[in-house]
Amino acid sequence: MKIDPNSNADLSAQIAKSIRDAIISGDLIVDQRLPSEAELSDQFDVSRPTVREALKRLAAQSLIRTQRGATGGAFVNKLSFEEAYPQQITTSTLLLSMNAVSFETACEARYTLERSCAPLSALRRTADHLATMRAEIHRQSQPGLTDEAFCASDVAFHRALVDGAGNPVLSYQLAGAVEAMQPLMNMITFSARDRAKIIELHTALADALEANNATGVDTALAGLESYTTNLAKSVMEKRKNKA
Amino acid sequence: MKIDPNSNADLSAQIAKSIRDAIISGDLIVDQRLPSEAELSDQFDVSRPTVREALKRLAAQSLIRTQRGATGGAFVNKLSFEEAYPQQITTSTLLLSMNAVSFETACEARYTLERSCAPLSALRRTADHLATMRAEIHRQSQPGLTDEAFCASDVAFHRALVDGAGNPVLSYQLAGAVEAMQPLMNMITFSARDRAKIIELHTALADALEANNATGVDTALAGLESYTTNLAKSVMEKRKNKA
DNA sequence: GCCATTTAAATGCCAGACAATTAAATAACT
DNA sequence: AGTTATTTAATTGTCTGGCATTTAAATGGC
Questions:
Q1: How do residues A177-229 score in pLDDT, each as one tens digit?
Q2: Do B141 and B197 have their domain in common?
Q3: Checking phi first, is residue A45 left (phi over 0); if not, alpha (psi -120 to 50) or beta?
Q4: Are residues A31 and A101 in the same domain?
């Protein structure tokens, strides 16, 4: 393997790309051991620190894992949904906060995606999913709950709804949209009356889901979306007037 | 800043996490310059190579960019949708290939998400989106087209549909679902008759979109999903019989 | 005042070394 | 023979120190 030292990209970036491509193309398969750092240095004709930088890049994307010791080394990592979740959420969160995405746009995306899961979830949700949702509703009605905890519970509730569709790909894609909204939601402080309204809609949603009533679920979600949007609008309005 | 040398995690991973948290929390803002590698070495009380490994981890996630020269250094990167797309697609592709996700499951997720965009797109699509879709349909009907090119055009067509919803967050989330399907779609070689059928459905979809007919778009998408699923099923069946 | 040169600061890269970890090979002991 | 303790070898983790390269700003010459 050879690397172009005249490219404008870092050597470590080129090496990382080379290995990444090998993983994506299937030349390197899951759990396969990569050559040792010393061997990679020879193959790519670079120093060990440079190889290490390349490997760290791959590790940051969970594409490899490393093990020390005699039989250690870098191994192609089986990328699991569990591992991919946090990265997806981090990226989505930063995208929202760094690109001045309006609350409305983010909210629309989130509820659009979530409503698409509703029919499947109404069909396939297990008792487990329902139990989780009921438990979260109960938590949300506790008086002493902080706004952060309320929002976290809200996220857990909606994730149970999405997971109810029984499609891991769908759950993964939705995770980013739902979780990344949390910081934005936290900016809206909920009054007791607002919470009661949200809990009421959550209950309606759970009831419809329990009855396998897809239309009911969709209606409840639409209600949540418009209520949330209006709430945000009024909060923003108040803040603007104060300032 | 101090790092725990007795943790089981690598120093570079801990440092990367520390800086990443600072970015997420807003302590470090976009375009802000991080301390130089030498300064970071001092602050975290580690060597420069270790700091560099940490920075490469962050660079792999597009959280920072580096610049050489007198006024150079590492800067907090404004994560753009354009930058996040490829990562999202790589991750989604690997998740599908490494986790034995069935074609059916992936296909269901993809069309479920895409159908959720249909109403918005029927409402908001511009002439530009329509033109792209018509152009891709035209390309798809060229006789000499390879299967790969046909699939690539298919992806472009569907991305135009999604982009028509005019919501960047939605487009981003959908990119992974749509693009990650391409390698799976490539495994199904399309006969001329299959292509004609797909083009027919694409045309119906574009027509409905042009008429702002949300229901028509949804019907066409549902048709595409069932046709694709059945096609895949029969292809798999044939392969099993051969073997 | 403008252009060429120098300088300084920073990242990019390398060589060599040592520490820590781990599994396997070996030796010692029962 | 079998089990346990020790040694050994391979590998990653980390450090030191250095040089090359790039870039913008400071300096100097015209």
A1: 888 888 788 787 777 678 899 999 999 999 999 999 999 999 999 999 999 99
A2: yes
A3: left
A4: no
Instruction: Pick the residue from chain A with its C-alpha nearest to B178.
Output: A173
Identify the domain boundary among A21, A54, A76. Answer: A76
Chain B residues within 8 A of A87 when measuring between CB atoms:
61, 91
**Which of A112, A124, A184, A229 would you mutate first to test chain B, the one with the most B CBs within 10 A?**
A112
Chain C nucleotides with an atom closer than 7 Å to a protein C-beta = 8-17, 20-24
| B120 and B232 part of one domain | yes
* Nearest by CB: B61 against A52, A60, A97: A60
- Domain with B129 in it: 81-242
Answer yes or no: is pLDDT of B185 > 90: no
| Residues B38-95: tens digit of each pLDDT | 999 999 999 999 999 999 999 999 999 999 999 999 999 999 998 998 999 999 999 9
- The percentage of chain B sitting over the pLDDT mark of 70, rounded to a whole number, equals 97
**Nearest CA distance, A221 vs chain B (angstrom):** 13
Label residue B46 left, alpha or beta by phi (over 0 means left) and psi (-120 to 50 means alpha): beta
Q: Count of CB atoms within 10 A of residue A186's CB?
A: 15
What is the reported pLDDT for A236?
A: 82
Q: Would the CB atoms of A53 and B56 count as touching at under 8 Å?
A: yes
Average pLDDT (A113-124) is 94
Q: What is the mean pLDDT of chain A?
A: 92
Question: Residue A159: pLDDT band by 50, 70, 90 thresholds?
Answer: very high
Same domain, A62 and A154: no
Q: Which of A93-123 are b and which e, b meaning 16 or more Cβ less than 10 Å from the residue's Cβ? A: bbbbbbbebebebbbbbbbbbbbbbbbbbbe
Q: What is the CATH number of the domain that holds B200?
A: 1.20.120.530
**CB-based contact A108:B167 (threshold 8 Å):** yes
Kindly list the residues from chain B whose CB atom is less than 8 angstroms away from the CB atom of residue A176.
173
Whether residue A207 is found in the same domain as residue A165: yes
* Residue A187: per-residue pLDDT: 80
Number of domains in chain B: 2
Element (H, E) at B173: helix B168-179
Minimal C-alpha gap between A63 and chain B (Å): 9
CA of B167 to C1' of C9 (A): 44
Query: What's the pTM?
Result: 0.89
Helix H or strand E segment including A223: helix A214-242
Instruction: Name every chain A residue with its beta carbon within 8 A of the beta carbon of B85.
Output: none
Report the length, in residues, of chain A: 243
Dmax over CA atoms of chain A, in Å, equals: 67
Share of chain A above pLDDT 70, in %: 97
**Would B4 be classed as within a structural domain?**
no
A165 and A45 within one domain: no
